[in-house]
Amino acid sequence: MEKNKIYRAEIIAYAGDGSSIARIHDMVVFVPGGAVGDQCDIRIVKIAKNYAYGRIERIFIKSKNRIEPECPHASKCGGCCYWHISYEEELRAKSKKVQDAIQRIGGIAMEPEAVCGSDSIYHYRNKAQYPVGIKDDEIITGFYRARSHDIIPMEHCLIQTELADNLAKCVRDWMTEYHVAPYNENTRSGFIRHIYVRSGFATGQVLLCIVTKSAKLPAVGELIQAARQTVPGLCGIVLNINKKTGNAILGDRYITLWGNDTLEDVLCGNRFQLSPAAFYQVNRAQAEKLYEAALQYAELDQTKTALDLYCGAGTITLALAHSAKEVIGAEIVPQAVENAKQNAKLNYITNARFICADAGQAATHLAEEGIRPDVIVVDPPRKGIDQATIDAIGAMAPERVVYVSCDPATLARDVKLLGEQGYQLKRYKVFDLFPRTFHVETVCLLSRKDK
Ligand SMILES: C[S@@+](CC[C@H](N)C(=O)[O-])C[C@H]1O[C@@H](n2cnc3c(N)ncnc32)[C@H](O)[C@@H]1O
Description:
Helix content is 25%, strand content 32%. It is α/β, with parallel strands linked by helices and 451 residues long. The protein has 3 domains: 6-66, CATH 2.40.50.140; 95-119 and 283-448, Vaccinia Virus protein VP39 (Rossmann fold); 127-263, CATH 2.40.50.1070. The protein is globular and about 60 Å long. The mean pLDDT is 96. Bound molecules: S-adenosylmethionine. S-adenosylmethionine is lined by residues 279-281, 310-312, 315-316, 331-333, 336, 358-359, 379-381, 406.
């Protein structure tokens, strides 16, 4: 295979990162924007040891699942990757991605239950984080180009809400009028880094969080007035101060400019107060279905105790609490734990308690204390659970482990590690909370092999 040379090939699969795969001269070639069944000319742009990267130059037979992308930014924006295929095909790709990981990494040949697709693939996100920059002397917001920090300017995004897009415009206009410069990553000059908007779809509340390098901003009163006029349901405006270099969007310090510093929403029948620092699933309707499945897999009754590791603001913990004797949640972000405690009170739940700690440390400590939950639910970030947590789960020996995951590869690795602790995968189901992107959620039920 030669770089820059064009080869004729068929797209045979989707890759984990949302690109597609062709096989040329026995080598896997990753190709963005392909649909399984496309027959195309592919130009090789990079060759690594065991694989290569290519670009579609011409499609001479289109896949039957290929559609005209509705998003005009689809070929450039790094946020989505599936606007060129039907939603049914996207769901098949996501379900297969999880099944392949469970088989290849987890070593288990098992089919998932029927994939749960989103009722809507448009405007489903309750959270927007727009990077802010400047182009041709104009303030821009948008989304990053894939694998870069180049901002693709965008007025409207098909998966964000109109309210969030309007607030981004409002902040851009304020910046232009009062000469508030965007932050420049290279020179570390300027102020505004991101515009973060979170909406409560059940309550209509909207919280605006402006991520800035410095708290000293001009014309703050004008910003508050403009934002309130733009979104009448606005419940608060918060500054987040991030002076750090690197990719983390949020810094550690928050200053409330106006209104509340939390947003309220309703999920699985419980009310939740959410700080900007607290995790909250971006697709509320699908999150309810995901958590209902987790609850069903947990098979709790009023005699059982449950431990919810990586519990965030208590969304799963409080859903479990209604069906359990007692629940314990553990979470590392202090604001989320404060929210969780308040949320228990807000919902008159008295059988839930929360620990602010690393999940591994909390689980180890609970195991040493002799706590033996009947069920442990884990919902870790993408990197999955660490060995200390796996060992502590083994020591506590619950009947069931319910694993909620946003990363099929680490999920499959951890299912294998939990297998070494005596747990067997019983069933799993894939949920699409992120239509048109490559992200996917899975819930797994593991039971003790001796049960
Ligand atoms: C995918 S979120 C799930 C949150 C919650 N279960 C929910 O659905 O809203 C993962 C959570 O793990 C937390 N987290 C990350 N690393 C952690 C650690 N080492 N120990 C405990 N929690 C951690 C994050 O702050 C986040 O709240």
